[in-house]
Design brief:
It contains 14 helices and no strands. By secondary structure, it is an all-alpha fold.
Amino acid sequence: MLVNKAFIYILIGAALWGTIGFYVKNLYAYGFTPMEVVTLRVWTSAVILVLYLLFTAPKRLKLHQLTDIKYFIGTGIFSIVFFNYCMFTAIETSTIPVATALLYTGPAFVTIFSYLLFKEPLTRIKIIALCITLFGTSLVVGLIPFDKEAFKFGSVVFGIGSAVGYALYSIFSKYALRKYTTLPITTFTFLTAAIALIPFFPYKEKVMLLINQEVLFYAFGLGLLPTAVAYIIYTHGLNRTETSKASILTTVEPVVATMIGIFIFQETFSFIQMLGMACIICAVIVVQVYSSNQNNVTRSPKLRA
């Protein structure tokens, strides 16, 4: 029963992540830029996560050492801010389905960075998955077969940038996990990012917009549902199942994002692009299943002992 509930939590969390484009597109309609939307998301998320920890586990809202801030500068500024800015720009310059598909190439960059930084083996399965990801990405962006109208170089650059930023979170948080658990890491990450973004928001020009009820709904909703709530629910489920299984379940995110783009915003997404997204999702699943099997083999002697 616990496993089934865990799967439901993870699916709900991932589905909420898939709704990000809905809030972003609507905030764009009010004249907000990608960086301003990043600031709104980061600030609302930071406030919600801090309040959540204050009520549930206040002792975890404390740095072990002041120098630990370096971890959260990495996860907050070099990952979250960069990743969100690139993703929101990709959504603005292309479509939600294309931006989400490019974001999901992130695990491929995690594999490459882990090989370069942590000397994790680049196995045959991982190389095959990387090739499938590359092929799927080429289909999504209109490179194979070449589609002059679909292929937008700027969108591809920002989409790949979002994937790199997404991957960097896994790399930086790996260092932070030596001293902190996942929820405090995320809270300190958004708090650091929020403080860093203070000088970059045009408060005087946009203060009247922030009073608008619909703007508040989209801004607060972006920080609440597809960020704070999604992460809390996902973590709750993750604590009750294997990470590899959870990662496979999160592939519901691009499916939800694609449906929102197509059915709500009437964005085009061809069969070839859908095939490309399927390739990217399959590559993620292949790596996770392989990693799970490897971990089981590694652990089996200890379990028998």
